[in-house]
Amino acid sequence: MLVIKRKESESILIGDDIEIIISEISQDKVKIAINAPKDIKITRKELAETCEFNIDASEQISKISLKNIKLSLKSTDKK
Fold first, then answer.
1. How far separated are the first and last CA of the chain, in Å rounded?
2. Is the dihedral of CA 15, 21, 27, 29 positive or negative?
3. pLDDT value, residue 69
4. pLDDT at 10
5. pLDDT, mean over the chain
6. 37-64 pLDDT per residue, tens
7. DSSP letters of 20-76?
8. What is the mean pLDDT of residues 2-26?
9. Contacts of 43 (CB under 8 A, 6+ apart)
């Protein structure tokens, strides 16, 4: 991992096509701007992790048969 210090309005180049600009620095946040080709996908890490979690959860749910869910719902209705 490369760790680099930058001041506000300074930038970092990644290859020839991607520029990361430090747009604003406040007490506990740094705002960055990213210039990249439109075909480069840019996603916040926490959003990607949530997406992976949701995919894993849906795969677990699909292992449960609809018949078992239906039976469970019927048994709670009778109570």
1. 58
2. negative
3. 76
4. 97
5. 86
6. 999 999 999 988 888 888 777 776 666 6
7. EEEEEE-SS-EEEEEE--TTS----HHHHHHHHHHHHHHHHHHTS-HHHHHHHHHHH
8. 95
9. none
DSSP 13: E
Quick check: helix, strand or coil at residue 77? helix
Q: On the CB side of 48, how many CA atoms lie within 13 Å of its CA?
A: 5
> Is-contact 35 18, C-beta < 8 A?
yes
Dihedral sign from CA coordinates of 41, 35, 5, 47: negative
Identify the bridge partners of residue 12 per DSSP, sorted by sequence position: 20
Closest CA to 36 of 51, 58, 21: 21
What residue type is 4 in one-letter code?
I
C-alpha–C-alpha distance, residues 53 and 65, integer Å: 21
Mean pLDDT over 6-32 rounds to 95
